[in-house]
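Methods — Computational structure assignment.
A single polypeptide chain was analysed. Its primary sequence is given first, followed by the predicted tertiary structure written as structure tokens.
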Amino acid sequence: MTRTSVAERAGPTDPGARLQAIDAVRGAALFGVLLVNMYNFGADAPEWTDLVDRTFSTLMHSLFETKSLRLFSLLFGLGFALQLAGAMSRESGSLWFYVRRLIVLFVFGMAHALFFDGDILMEYALLGLILVAFSNVHRRILLILGFALLAAFPLGNLIYPESDDDLAAHWEDSLPLAELRLDHPYLGSPMDVFSENAFAIPPPIGSNLQSPESSLAIFSMLLLGLYVGRTRILYDVAAHLPLIHRVFAWGIGIGAASTIAEWWLSQHYGYAVFTVTTAPSGVRFMGDMLFAYGSTALALGYGAGIVLLAQRGLWQSALRPLQNLGKMALTVYLCSTVMFTTLFYGWGFGQLFLMGPTETTFYAVMFFTMLAAFCTWWLARYRFGPAEWVWRSLTYLKFQPLRR
């Protein structure tokens, strides 16, 4: 009997064998990531005081900020878990396929970072390499360690409070938007943008570990994704429905309670997560703990809720656009950046710092709707998204079949 080569057995997953519920969750997370990224271009400034603007801003902070990134990172961890499990189960040397996949992802991230300095792909690629060391760690330890690392943000803020330089940086960020537009590199040529964003390559994964979206926080979600993949909960949803129901109920409940408590601290003590806070250290630590674990609980609740909806026949058609978006997550992530940089940068419409929360949310919804229509059209004709096809072909050093 001839042995099948490693390259043949290490081929990409058949698109028809994908877990539809996971794709739907990933698609939903992508909207939150897009919305939060777009708010970084002026919609989060304190100048927008209109009631409608404040309402949209509050909804973004309460429902999507950090929560979407948590969920997106968990799903990347789940994907890494599946790839890593496949690599470890094959004969010696096949782990190289997993490593090569991360190398290609890192290159994608480098190109993406030149357009948008908030790239997350490079960080996923580097942390995915570290994830190899946890491939044989007991599942319970993965779960405990994943949740324990979330405390790095509140503990780091307690031990290393903001310095005067940090306060000065926040003060500069609060300058009038019209003043911030003056000679801003994003309103210049493409080379001005690339030169400004080049500092983000490579990502500083070892710095600012007390940030709520630091590499430690992202790695904690990768570990939880590895745990979900190892337990195979989503491979047999029917057998795990009671657990998924509990995750949904507790996640939404704890997340909502934490959000309300965090808001109360902001109203009575001046607590804030991403800006300068006037709250005393004890209150700040309490608020940071609420934000770190409440955001994670809400993200898990979101994911569990979508998985439960996907089991209902009436919802399957409604979730199909999200599934298509999730199947083309890399393409959607990159295309989202092309869309909002064209809107905000000087090479496009130059709307940097000119749009408030209401307009920004409108454009985010419009871009996402356009991407959903594109993904539906594309997947009716092709097996993979264009970026996914390039990723797979470079990973396996062989052109993958694209047309259906």
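Note: The mean pLDDT is 88.
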